[in-house]
Amino acid sequence: MSGRLPTPPSESNSNLQHGSTKAKPRLSKQQQQQNHAGSETRRRQKLEDGWSQLADLIPSVDRKEAKKIGLVSKKAIQFASEQLAKRKRLMEALEAKGVNIEQDLGIRRDERAPIDMPLGLTKAKNVNGERAGTE
Predict the structure, then answer these.
(1) β-bridge partners, 125
(2) Considering only Cβ atoms within 10 Å of each terminal Cβ, which end of the chain, N or C, has fewer?
(3) How far is CA 31 from CA 10, 25, 35, 44, in A?
(4) Does the pTM exceed 0.85?
């Protein structure tokens, strides 16, 4: 005896197609490489599409700059910061006029929440470490 235990049926049949009793043929090394290359191409395309969509949302990014991930992310942070500062100024102006923004308008004081995001949708944590947007 070789000292090796027999493989349980569940492990030896791991190559079976779902609902089939025939073994699924193994891919050749070349097919595996082609599948991997295709998966990697699709992954990169999705990332590129996402960055392109983000770049389209930022007014200061032009088409030539859209492929520069570092630049797009830097300008996205800058743009978001400017929008949050603008939101804060608008909220302060409303409060100066006597408007209670939380009670009268239903807008959170959480400075990280976008002004047009419906209440309860954000999953970010606020500055106190509490979940923002939970009602």
Answers:
(1) 131
(2) N
(3) 26, 12, 6, 20
(4) no
